[in-house]
């Protein structure tokens, strides 16, 4: 691999004008297509085949008036007043009359006729149902509805909006995300020691992210893509794009400290060595993200493929555009010789990494046991992991969705926001038994101690479908509500005996079903990732113990990251500093996503760190010195890469979307734990304990495996004259 990349990089440097022009042309073409030709971004996480989705499909087919998107308009009179006062009631009724005339509206309920008022008559709600699905209700229609309710606001009423059609669009590009990028630039400048060199990884990463994200938008013309997919592609693409360029540029500048090193040769060698690690590590990220397809969940598969495509573009940019740009800057990137200051001892490059490696390898067993115990302690909360999808309680407290949630909870109880929909398919029930069956079912549902109320049955035009609203006593995020859904579904056999079919639907039931589906997919996905890690690392390092150690470290990182996420988002700690409106279940697809993403990133650090160890071991056959050398030479750049990734991910923690917030937090914490605790601490300690055994491989397997050269052993030997032995050693390194 290294030899081919060396030749390829020389070609990219010598034809840098064409390479740069090709990437600019691609960016322009994809950008134009992504901006002008794109589909609608979905906001729902739907999974075909789950019960709640089958019920929704049935409603759309047989009872479209009950399947459309709903905007729930919530009214609240001032303290001490009521909605039934003449002025308030008139304002509400006139607003609803205007709402009924909005294009697409098929039904408007009147709270004064339906009794949708709280016991003290201060809070009430009206449902405005549209013909379109919730995701298809246009912003113009919502704005028209808001305008229709302006009179109620003038009458002194508080008017807020909830319902299925009010899910907020995922947005990025706020101050927090920009702060993450600025922090990444600061780390780059400190690592590379040059503002020009620091700007290059950011520039090339932005090109890759722009192509990836705009390409995803273009593909959304034919494929349903959620807003989270686009944000994830942006988040991961930016982080790996910066890191991959950093690894190559850092190696290039390290080599240029030798004044006899030719610039073109240095670029080619940097791409051949660090670039080989980039290609290998990038491939693991791509494969891990693409493996999300194995979950059998379409929106998660699309999410993984979108991010994988962006990472693939980042790899291609790292081995083509980066060397071309480096060739363009030429000698300007050569580090200036440091002038020694009188009376001050200059520290050699990698001095802190050398000191850290020696400290870790001095007492490796104690370090290893301490680190493992610490990670297991962080992982403890993961035992109580609960999965779900965020309700409006998780929306920003200033949002109308959160305010409507609070008003409805105050007026009608916490369970009102968790309303379930019982859908009974009655087509095969004898006509004379339909009423008795539905009545018996309603009695059974209402008899559960955790059910607050059950509405009267409503049938479609041919009475083949009957719908009832079931209001729990507990909120959508409560475990009791999840248990209630499972108990209510126990009525299905009784309905089936009469010839009918019972479904439970609604947002709360859908969230529970998605979480259950993802929980079932998690063991298979973890197994795939573990096997993948063992195979790839065995190929890379021609060892059995190194892959095993790396995989165990990865599993510890995952457990600690999930445990910390549970402690924050499910237990409700740090809710103030992190602006978390409400504690609740962890986003149902976050563990699967975290495993896929963190696996690739963990393998990045493993490859860059251990490849330097193996490179030194091949030259010296001294295992302990190889560990020290690997950390000393790679510790600085691996630490910088981890800080950059964490900064980029942490910028998304303050995004208003609760899903993006939790993903950003989990990835930021996971990267920091894996890089600094596992890779920089536990890995050197374990390698020191393993000694020569770390690099052992059965002869039969050694002969069977292909030779993947990621250390550059097959590169042409430099013939340029060297000033002294130290330069020769630097060239070998």
What this model shows, in words?
- By secondary structure, this protein is an alpha+beta fold.
- The chain has four domains: 1-37 and 193-336, Multidrug efflux transporter AcrB transmembrane domain (Multidrug efflux transporter AcrB transmembrane fold), CATH 1.20.1640; 70-162, Alpha-Beta Plaits; 351-398 and 530-700, Multidrug efflux transporter AcrB transmembrane fold (Up-down Bundle); 399-511, 2-Layer Sandwich (Alpha-Beta Plaits), CATH 3.30.70.
- It is built from 26 helices and 13 strands.
- It has helices spanning 2-14, 16-36, 51-62, 86-99, 111-114, 139-148, 150-154, 175-192, 195-219, 227-255, 263-290, 298-319, 321-329, 351-362, 364-379, 400-412, 434-446, 479-488, 492-497, 507-541, 545-570, 590-620, 623-650, 658-690, 699-704, 725-732, and strands spanning 41-42, 70-76, 105-108, 123-130, 158-162, 225-226, 387-388, 420-425, 451-454, 458-459, 465-472, 501-505, 586-587.
- Strands 8, 9, 10, 11 and 12 form a five-stranded antiparallel beta sheet that branches.
- A hairpin with a 5-residue loop joins β10 and β11.
- α2 packs across α9, α11 (263-290) packs antiparallel against α22 (590-620) and α14 (351-362) crosses α23 (623-650).
- The longest helix has 35 residues, at 507-541.
- The chain is elongated and about 90 Å long.
Content-based structural category: alpha+beta
Secondary structure tally: strands:
13
What is the name of the CATH class of the largest domain? Mainly Alpha
CATH architecture of the largest domain: Up-down Bundle
Q: Percent of residues in beta strands?
A: 5-15%
Distance between the termini: 18 Å
Indicate the CATH topology of the largest domain.
Multidrug efflux transporter AcrB transmembrane fold
Biggest beta-sheet profile: 5 strands, antiparallel
The number of domains is 4
**Molecular shape:** elongated
């Amino acid at each position: 691999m290294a030899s081919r990349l060396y030749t390829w990089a020389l070609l990219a440097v010598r034809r840098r004008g064409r390479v740069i022009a090709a990437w600019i042309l691609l960016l322009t073409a994809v950008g134009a297509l992504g901006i002008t030709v794109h589909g609608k971004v979905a906001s729902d996480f739907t999974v075909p085949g789950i019960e709640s989705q089958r019920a929704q499909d049935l409603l759309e087919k047989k009872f479209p008036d009950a399947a459309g998107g709903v905007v729930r308009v919530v009214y609240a009179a001032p303290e001490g007043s009521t909605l039934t006062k003449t002025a308030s009631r008139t304002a509400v009724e006139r607003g609803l009359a205007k709402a009924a005339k909005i294009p697409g509206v098929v039904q408007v309920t009147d709270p004064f006729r339906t009794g949708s008022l709280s016991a003290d008559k201060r809070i009430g709600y009206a449902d405005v149902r549209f013909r379109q699905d919730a995701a298809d209700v246009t912003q113009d229609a919502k704005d028209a509805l808001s305008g229709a309710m302006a009179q109620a606001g003038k009458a002194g009423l508080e008017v807020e909006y909830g319902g299925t059609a009010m899910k907020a669009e995922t947005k990025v590009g706020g101050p927090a995300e920009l702060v993450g990028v600025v922090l990444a630039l600061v780390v780059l400048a400190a690592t590379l020691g040059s503002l020009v060199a620091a700007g290059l990884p950011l520039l090339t990463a932005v090109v890759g992210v722009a192509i990836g994200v705009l390409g995803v938008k273009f593909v959304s013309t034919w494929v349903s893509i959620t807003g989270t997919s686009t944000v994830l592609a942006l988040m991961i693409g930016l982080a790996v794009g910066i890191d991959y360029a950093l690894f190559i540029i850092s190696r290039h500048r390290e080599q240029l400290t030798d004044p006899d090193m030719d610039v073109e040769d240095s670029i080619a060698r940097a791409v051949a060595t660090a670039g080989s690690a980039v290609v290998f590590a990038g491939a693991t990220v791509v494969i891990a993200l693409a493996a999300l397809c194995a979950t059998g969940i379409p929106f998660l598969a699309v999410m993984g493929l979108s991010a994988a495509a962006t990472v693939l573009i980042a790899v291609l940019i790292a081995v083509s555009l980066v060397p071309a740009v480096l060739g363009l800057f030429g000698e300007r990137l050569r580090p200036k010789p440091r002038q020694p200051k009188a009376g001050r001892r200059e520290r050699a490059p990698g001095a802190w990494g050398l000191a850290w490696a020696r400290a870790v390898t001095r007492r490796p067993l104690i370090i290893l046991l301490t680190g493992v115990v610490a990670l297991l302690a962080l992982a403890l909360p993961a035992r109580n992991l609960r999965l779900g999808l965020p309700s409006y309680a998780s929306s920003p407290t200033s949002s109308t969705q959160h305010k409507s949630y609070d008003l409805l909870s105050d007026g009608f109880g916490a369970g009102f926001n968790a309303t379930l929909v019982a859908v009974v398919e009655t087509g095969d029930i004898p006509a004379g038994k339909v009423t008795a069956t539905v009545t018996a079912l309603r009695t059974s549902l209402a008899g559960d101690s955790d059910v607050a109320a059950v509405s009267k049955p409503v049938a479609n035009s041919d009475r083949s479908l009957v719908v009832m609203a079931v209001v729990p006593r507990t909120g959508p995020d409560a475990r009791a509500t999840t248990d209630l859904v499972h108990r209510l579904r126990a009525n299905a056999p009784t309905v089936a005996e009469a010839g009918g079919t019972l479904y439970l639907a609604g947002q709360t039931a859908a969230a529970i079903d998605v979480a259950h589906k993802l929980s079932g997919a998690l063991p298979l996905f973890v197994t795939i990732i573990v096997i993948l890690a063992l195979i790839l690392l065995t190929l890379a390092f021609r060892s059995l113990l190194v892959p095993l150690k790396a995989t165990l470290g990865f599993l510890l990182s995952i457990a600690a990251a999930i445990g910390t996420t549970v402690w924050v988002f499910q237990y409700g700690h740090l809710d103030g500093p992190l602006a978390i409106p409400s504690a609740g279940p962890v986003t149902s697809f976050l563990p699967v996503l975290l495993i896929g993403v963190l696996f690739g990133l963990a393998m990045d650090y493993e490859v860059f760190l251990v490849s330097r160890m193996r490179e030194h071991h091949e030259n010296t056959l001294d295992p302990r010195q190889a560990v020290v050398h690997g950390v000393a030479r790679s510790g600085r750049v691996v630490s910088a890469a981890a800080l950059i990734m964490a900064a980029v991910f942490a910028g998304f923690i303050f995004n208003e979307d609760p899903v993006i917030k939790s993903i950003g937090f989990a990835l930021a914490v996971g990267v920091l734990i894996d890089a600094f605790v596992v890779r920089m601490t536990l890995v050197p300690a374990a390698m020191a304990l393993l000694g020569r055994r770390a690099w052992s491989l059965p002869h039969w397997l050694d002969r069977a495996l292909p030779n993947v050269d990621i250390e550059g052993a097959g590169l042409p030997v430099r013939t340029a004259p060297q000033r002294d032995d130290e330069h020769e050693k630097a060239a070998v390194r």
